[in-house]
Design a protein that fits this description.
Blueprint: E1 2-9, H1 11-15, H2 19-28, E2 32-39, H3 43-49, H4 59-66, E3 71-79, H5 81-89, H6 102-106, E4 115-117, H7 121-131
Antiparallel strand pairs: 1-3, 1-4, 2-3
Bound molecules: adenosine-5'-diphosphate and magnesium ion.
Adenosine-5'-diphosphate binds near residues 58 and 113.
Length: about 140
Amino acid sequence: MTQRTFSIIKPDATKRNLTGKINAVIEGAGLRIIAQRRIHMTEGQAKRFYEVHKERPFYGELVATMTSAPVVVQVLEGENAVARYREVMGATNPDQAAEGTIRKLFALNVGENSVHGSDSLENAAIEIAQFFSEADIVG
Ligand code: ADP
Ligand code: MG
């Protein structure tokens, strides 16, 4: 099934000028970048985006990290894109990420782990709608 998922190239990666290298891994895995924009997230945007984690001890640090430098927000399209991109990203903690995954290749630690990807088709639609209108997405 062709799906869309939402991706963020996080501040740790944009600061190290890794946008192109990460996009090459995404495209090499058969996912198509059908919308992309570089933004500096506001605190309000980051808090809303990660609201599911608001009771977790790392929430404040997560919001601070995500607003510390620009990010690249993206819509990816492909066969089973949601699960596929989770595979391509690798485990949340880069120490546990498989060889060849984005997090194994580029992440610094569990907090600064270079990329976000939606964890379900339902959340993908919600997350895409937070940052893109349909007119921005050219599939
Ligand atoms: P994922 O991004 O793999 O879906 P989660 O949804 O569990 O992971 O967590 C969201 C983000 O919160 C992670 O990508 C990471 O940046 C941060 N995070 C998760 N766990 C920790 C932790 N133990 N310490 C610091 N930051 C964390
Ligand atoms: Mg998650």
